[in-house]
Fold these 2 entries.
Entry 1:
Amino acid sequence: AQTVTQSQPEMSVQEAETVTLSCTYDTSESDYYLFWYKQPPSRQMILVIRQEAYKQQNATENRFSVNFQKAAKSFSLKISDSQLGDAAMYFCASLSSGGGADGLTFGKGTHLIIQP
Amino acid sequence: GAGVSQSPRYKVAKRGQDVALRCDPISGHVSLFWYQQALGQGPEFLTYFQNEAQLDKSGLPSDRFFAERPEGSVSTLKIQRTQQEDSAVYLCASSSHSLAGAGELFFGEGSRLTVL
């Protein structure tokens, strides 16, 4: 079984500043995927960034980057130059790569507030 | 369609009623997932289809929950004899890949079920 822990229920950042959202996970799998999803108030989940565990290089997507520490089982999300449109719930998730029948395991989420 | 479509967006049911929630995945998507998201929580996996085959239903909370995807496209999640603890947002997601993690999951906006 996999578990994902997000210890920050809410984070606030000034517009244009940088914010880091924390995530730790636990898995017995040797190969797995990690994700950050954004859920705006409309509730549609949108993939922000994805990391394959076998890749040591941290994934980056424009203003979004991760700090993947495999030994520590940590997967934090850094948002640079925060924009008002970044305000949303952010969910960290993990997925075993074996079998294909498993669903994502989500954390409880972090509510990100952007201060204008 | 352009995205994953779910209906109804909102459903209020009296305790003991049966409900049916519909998901129209992106055309041609092989994989389809159902998740349950309680208020203030992350989504929790319910069940997974690869085409018309239900490969994993380990997340269904009780035998009152039933899902089908008879023609490998539209899926219906049915909840019989609804209880108050069934109140949640039910999210559907689809992917063009048959292997979990290999492709991006596209989520619908969800169906919010309130059981009185």
Entry 2:
Amino acid sequence: DQQVKQNSPSLSVQEGRISILNCDYTNSMFDYFLWYKKYPAEGPTFLISISSIKDKNEDGRFTVFLNKSAKHLSLHIVPSQPGDSAVYFCAASDSQGGSEKLVFGKGTKLTVNP
Amino acid sequence: DAGVIQSPRHEVTEMGQEVTLRCKPISGHDYLFWYRQTMMRGLELLIYFNNNVPIDDSGMPEDRFSAKMPNASFSTLKIQPSEPRDSAVYFCASSRGRSQETQYFGPGTRLLVL
């Protein structure tokens, strides 16, 4: 039973357009959410996060939206650039529950075409 | 600052052999995590340590897997005996403290068990 789901294994967009990556979760105890980016042959790197007390967090071209009632979050990249081509992992944690455990989705491979 | 260091980067071994993966966390980080990435299961947490003490090993698949952290700058993940289904990329990550601290990943060890 996957607690964090990324239902789209892949996404392809044109350079300059918006990329929207989606993530759903089932555990209502999750209160902190993160996106990681992974290039081939490298480890995942932190991209952006959001606490459950917010519904939006923005960092440059990257914005994460959280809909707690729907247990859904999304990552928007505007404008998309070829260098954004990577696998994006959604992750969640129960930060108030005393555990440092992050639960990851399976990832979405984003391809930004020039 | 050096990031998380993992060795070896690649390991090819035969079924039944012992495999030892190594990790050096970022200096000053007191949490260390071992993850495994496969196509089927995505990125899953195996075990994590706080101040060299194992806190949660619920993700360790079976008794063939063991992990140690003898000091703050070194950890090992051992598989004995190895099986073909253990083939995966194993990541080590470290973080500075509790609750919403970013985890920094190493480059991973790609393990192939023949």
